Amino acid sequence: MDLVPAKQEPLHQPLKSVLGPATAKVMAEHLGLRTVGDLLHHYPRRYEERGQLTHLADLPMDEHVTVVAQVADARLHTFASSRAPRGKGQRLEVTITDGSGRLQLVFFGNGVHKPHKELLPGTRAMFAGKVSVFNRRLQLAHPAYELLRGDTEETVESWAGALIPLYPATAKLESWKLGKAIQTVLPAARDAVDPLPESLREGRGLLSLPDALHRIHRPATQADVTDARARLKWDEAFVLQVALARRRHAETQLAAVPRRPSPDGLLTAFDDRLPFTLTEGQRKVSREIFDDLATDHPMHRLLQGEVGSGKTMVALRAMLAVVDAGGQAVMLAPTEVLAQQHHRSIVEMMGELAEGGLLGGAEHATKVVLLTGSMGAAARRQALLDLVTGEAGLVIGTHALIEDKVRFHDLGLVVVDEQHRFGVEQRDALRGKGKQPPHLLVMTATPIPRTVAMTVFGDLETSVLDQLPAGRSPIASHVVPAADKPHFLSRAWERVREEVENGHQAYVVCPRIGDEPEKPEKPAKKGGPAGEDGDKRPPLAVLDVADQLAAGPLAGLKVEVLHGRMQPDDKDAVMRRYAAGETDVLVATTVIEVGVNVPNATAMVIMDADRFGVSQLHQLRGRVGRGSAPGLCLLVTEMPEASAARQRLSAVAATLDGFELSRIDLEQRREGDVLGQAQSGARTSLRVLAVIEDEEIIAEARQEAAAVVAADPELTGLPGLRTALDALLDEEREQYLEKG
Description:
The protein has 740 residues and is α/β, with parallel strands linked by helices. The chain has a seven-stranded parallel β-sheet, with helices on both faces. Strands 16-21-20-17-19-18 form a six-stranded parallel β-sheet, with helices on both faces. The radius of gyration is 30 Å and the shape is globular.
């Protein structure tokens, strides 16, 4: 077994010793590739067939692309400019074609001589550059290119085979240079240690790893590519699932205190005073949670539910059950506004049950304490005292709860609201405050497709609340194309006035605050919610829009602003006035995305809606229609009708089903974003596995991984798998894998 590291060495070799320091430096800085193994796992994005040409019409804006095409014509123009006042400036315009579409290339100055000689009509080449728009036409300025002659010795050698691999490249390193570097290290692929157990590989008819690496980089046929990708997908899915299965296994070895509610304690008293009955969904999920709390190892459960599906009620009942059983329960909220709001609504729902130790408190009452960073010293001292003596059964707070000074009497349950806002270390720090590991319930209103739940939250059991409580109203959503149809925008403001005249309130959401120093806009990335047509106008800002509305279309209405840079007390005062109905229109950033509950708010206008992601728009929209009156959400955009951004907005307007939208969101975004920071920085980002399409592979890999780990938790019999796991996670990352 001690031979394994020696066999692994060729793949661990640093690239600088193989390719030279200059190339290695560019690869490390721009693509994160440092070893021979890293480079072998840098797979082609797609392949061009020698005889075929790229579809030029489908090129993405502002992206670095590589295309294979033919020169249609080339013209040299001279012009006068400040640098060449006598009409000596030179510009070479080359038009390339794929047989249907055309694309313009431009070269300037001294850079025109070589391409003018080489890019003659009829020449085929690979061109790499950034796609931009000039005079409403797509163009590549100063692209790098490699002629496809097929006559010189080197070109024949490096482009042998009908399929040309095109690699994810950067401006500093074109696809063909990467291709050549990979050809140099490809012989090392035969030393790749296979992580898949042999029985699994043979049972599923998968290629060996050296064979798969060879075929993905030098395929003779399309079938080679398909077989290689199928094998490499299994690697990614299986190694990731083994890491998660080991984490689940380790958690079941931990001891926790079982927490069972007493039959006629605080929980029963609380249920008796509820003015409504729980939905069937809430009852089912509560049963799952109570079963987990009764076991002697820590619960790890993810509770997903649409905005307004009653997650807080389910979490509160779990917290009360733990208090009944003699423990303390904590709810961790991502912002002070939200922590204060949870505290207020929990105290209201509990009534005299929240007055433990006070005159007039009920028999089973406990104390509900709020702990946030901006509290005064005296209030904070008292809160800390209530925690350490056990006087406070329920604690609601922000990350201030995680500080060293905070001590609990007997922490039994941690509820994390909106998991994606909390880092790993924070969650673990809080869990470390229990005498034994406390039970953990993570809540999210962002619907997560099953496969992502299996991948990112793979060590959490999942409960889904998919029914809305009775009395919630449907929300009508419409796209408002402000550039094509300005009168639609005027009508939007009229609708807001109508809602206010009917006694309701409205939100207006903007992408930024407006007091930031002006920074030039970075061009948007593909699939990102921003100017896909080359539009570089800065996003609309809360402070500007609020002034314009108050002076213009909403004159006479009470308009206030809310954003993240306000002082906590000011934010709270604004929210209180809005909740009390004293403000008609609240102009805000996404600080209202999570948890602000004002049932009287019925309309929302989202400005520059194309600059928000699909899930975020869905979250924001969930803030209206929380009462009995129907909700209205207007998505304002200047994007042209054909753009991807507009299609995204139309999808949001067309359905209220968060799970459907989260699938659309995933399909439109890069896989790497999906797994978010759960995968950031490490080499765990998925290369060939697509979270949505490969649902079956992920599900099967999860089963196989669970079986392997159950039989051999330390993987002693599978050295290749251990090596792959170490490459996937350094030691401490294994603990943090699923936490975004």
